[in-house]
Design goal:
This is Phage related protein. The protein is an alpha+beta fold. Helices cover 22% and strands 29% of the residues. Strands 1, 2, 3, 4, 7, 8 and 10 form a seven-stranded mixed β-sheet that branches. Strands 11, 12, 13, 14, 15, 16 and 17 form a seven-stranded mixed β-sheet that branches.
Length: 723
């Protein structure tokens, strides 16, 4: 015998009960469902968190709503009916669920309550055409009964006036048989003998003589029959008609129906009796199934529902229409047990087997089939033709011919570029007017009046991409001198300028004195660390005896000033870090002094790093009376941040918008708020849910405030109200 635990109300169901109990919501219980999932190891909290019943095998309509004795307005019993009709595989009913939907716009159906089996019921398959039914009564908390509606399935519910028990039907049949026998005993003339002529008159005159019954044969047949007039006189209104009993299960759709949108009368309907395949195919707005399916039509206020149950399939189709059937929705498919478990998937893969052959080739041990394909082994760039051969491969990689064509075109372009670069590398002999030479390259002239020299020579041209700026360097053939000129945005060439190294003889207005660095006129004294000045006159204007180049100045005072300036440079150089970087002395500091106590000098100076369009600065900001802030300034967009790193790996950062990306160890933070952790809140909520579930099972009513609880207890003296 099967055994099921007490009903568990889900969190979503509990929320709806609370709002319905306060008169803030209305809802209806829609249907039941059976599951093959074993939920015995799930905690109460896990069950309460469910919104869908897993591994659903069958759905059931609801019937036989019963009120409980203790709390008739808060707890009701709902009956679910499951059978094995058309069930191809038997299963264990490990859990049953009850679904509900709030009477609100955009509301969806959800799991309201469920019960887990300790000893599940086994529903067998229907292979032997033996019908098995499993009925279960589930008791659930609903809050205020006037805010709850139960959607009752007409397939499973019949009133007492509509049905007869097996004993009642047998008693009625026995009584009817006795009445018929009494009528026949009193009315039938057993001594009357029918000749063939009389029988022929009563029967078809064209009947064969051999078909005529004798008196004994006729009497024998009439013994079990009642006279028509006597039967008409008999009051049989108290008995159930065969057609009425059959119609309680389903009704036949009239043959005149051509539009399924017009099937709006509630009940269970069948097209099988009055429709052949051609008539069925002519019916409009039907689901993708044959005429042997059953159709359930239900009505809730002005909303109509049609559900199609195809034979031999677990697929169910449904749709609805609002406003009394004026606008029907499209048919939707609902497939039971459409999700396979991992084990079922593995079995199906094993059953499918491996590939047998591909194009007559057997697979190898790994299941791969070698394929003979054309493989490109070479490619002619100029003709753009591929060299191909046939090879056997198991995992071919295909390359479209157009890809090679693209590569070939790129190679040809690069070849042209290489030829152009070769021409640029070698000088080009030309006589073009140099004023018109604005293309980068090396050129050789055999004489041109626009060059700054006569005869042969070279002309080097360099330009910008837009040719707005051009530079020309002219070099006479066989000489070590050069001339340079250029053209800018104005479009006018500058004059040629000789850029050769001048000799002493080229200098005019020579000074009267000349002093040699080599002979110590200015030298560095290693003992004092200063530059010192010594005078030595030369009468010759040639280089010094040692071969060093002499420096000529007008007077000694100029050299003395030079020595002083060099000493100043030395002192500054020794007191500063070199541009290449270096180490500073221990305890050394860098000072920036701002204004007075009431000044607002702003940026007092600091360090700046630049990269791309971004920058990072650290400086002192005197921005108020007796106030100096240390500023970390990031620019120019919000892509950069202050990064905290350990061994070059970033561990946290302060973004440019001020947000901190690292974690906070609150145990080391003073004045931290006394708040619960996320896990503590979750554990506390689980405890509350467990308590509320137990209260619901005991029939208690929980309210959000003490005022609501007090008002409910006055309105319902028998309630146990908890704020």
């Amino acid at each position: 015998m099967s055994k099921y635990r007490k009903t568990v109300l889900t969190n979503a169901g509990l929320d709806l009960v609370k709002r319905a109990n306060q008169g803030k919501a209305r809802f209806h219980l829609t249907r039941g469902a059976s599951s093959t999932e074993d939920l015995r190891q799930f905690s109460i909290a896990d069950l309460q968190n469910m919104t869908e019943l897993p591994s659903i095998m069958q759905y059931s309509g609801l019937s036989n709503i019963e009120n409980t004795i203790k709390t008739p307005d808060a707890v009701i019993g709902v009956k679910m009916n499951f059978d094995n009709k058309d069930l191809k595989h038997g299963y264990k009913v490990n859990a049953v669920g009850l679904y509900a939907m709030e009477d609100a716009e955009d509301a969806t159906e959800f799991l309201y309550a469920l019960s887990v089996a300790d000893e599940p019921e086994q529903i067998p398959d229907f292979t032997n055409d033996v019908l098995f039914k499993f009925n279960l009564m589930m008791y659930v908390v609903i809050g205020r009964k006037d805010n709850v509606t139960v959607t009752v399935s007409a397939d499973d519910v019949y009133t007492k006036n509509q049905t007869y028990s097996r004993t009642e039907i047998k008693e009625l049949l026995d009584e009817l048989t006795k009445d018929h026998q009494k009528i026949l005993d009193g009315k039938a003339d057993k001594d009357s003998v029918y000749n063939k002529t009389e029988v022929d008159n009563k029967l078809d005159t064209k009947a064969n003589k051999s078909d005529v019954y004798t008196k004994t044969e006729v009497d024998t047949k009439l013994d079990s029959k009642a006279d028509k007039s006597d039967l008409q006189a008999l009051n049989i209104d108290q008995y159930a008609k065969k057609a009425d009993v059959q119609s309680a299960y389903h009704k036949d759709v009239p043959a005149s129906l051509t539009e399924l949108n017009n099937l709006t009368e509630e009940g269970l309907w069948s097209f099988r009796a009055n429709f052949n395949d051609a008539q069925w195919n002519a019916v409009a707005n039907k689901p993708p199934t044959d005429r042997y399916a059953l159709y359930k039509v239900s009505k809730i206020q002005d909303d109509l529902f049609q559900i199609c149950y195809p034979t031999g399939s677990v697929q169910i189709y449904y749709r609805m229409a609002s406003g009394g059937g004026k606008s029907w929705s499209a048919w939707q498919s609902l497939v039971n047990n459409s999700t396979y478990s991992d084990t079922e998937i593995d079995k199906k893969i094993d059953a499918a087997g491996k590939v047998k052959k591909v194009a007559g080739v057997d697979p190898d041990n790994s299941g791969n089939v070698p394929i003979n394909v054309n493989v490109v082994t070479g490619y002619n760039v100029d003709s753009q033709q591929a060299t191909q051969t046939t090879k056997s491969v198991t995992q071919p990689v295909y390359i479209d011919k157009s890809a090679f064509q693209t590569i070939a075109e790129r190679i040809k372009q690069n070849s042209t570029t290489v030829q152009t670069l070769q021409q640029v590398r070698d000088a080009i002999v030309t006589q073009t007017n140099p004023n018109d030479m604005k293309t980068s390259g090396h050129y050789f002239y055999t004489g041109n009046s626009q060059l700054p020299f006569a005869g042969w020579g070279f002309l080097d041209v360099v330009k910008t991409p837009d040719t707005t700026r051009v530079r020309q360097i002219a070099t006479p053939d066989g000489y070590n001198t050069q001339y340079i000129r250029g053209i800018g945005p104005t479009g006018t060439w500058t004059n040629w300028v000789n850029i050769k190294q001048p000799s002493w003889s080229d200098i005019t207005n020579k000074p009267k004195y000349r002093y040699s660095l080599y002979n110590g006129n200015i030298h560095f004294n290693s003992s004092s660390g200063n530059f010192e000045w010594f005078t030595k006159n030369y009468t010759s204007n040639e280089v010094s005896d040692s071969g060093t180049m002499a420096i000529d100045l007008d007077d000694d005072a100029a050299l003395q000033e030079t020595a002083t300036a060099l000493n100043n440079v030395k002192n500054r150089a020794y007191s500063s870090l070199p541009l290449a970087g270096g180490s500073m002395n221990l305890y050394s500091t860098i000072n920036w002094n701002g204004g007075g106590i009431n000044d607002r000098s702003g940026n007092l100076g600091g360090l700046t790093w630049s990269g791309g369009t971004d920058s990072a600065r650290i400086y002192g900001d005197q921005n108020g009376n007796d106030n100096l802030d240390l500023a970390i300034d990031l620019g120019d967009d919000n892509s950069n941040h202050v990064s905290f790193r350990w061994n070059s790996a970033e561990k946290a950062a302060i973004r440019s918008d001020g947000h901190y990306t690292g974690s906070v160890d609150w145990s080391n933070v003073w004045g931290r708020p006394d708040v619960a952790t996320q896990q503590q809140i979750k554990d506390h909520q689980n405890q509350i849910n467990a308590i509320n579930s137990r209260l619901n099972e005991l029939g208690f009513h929980v309210f959000n405030t003490e005022a609501e609880s007090l008002a409910a207890s006055k309105q319902h003296p028998g309630w146990v109200c908890i704020p």
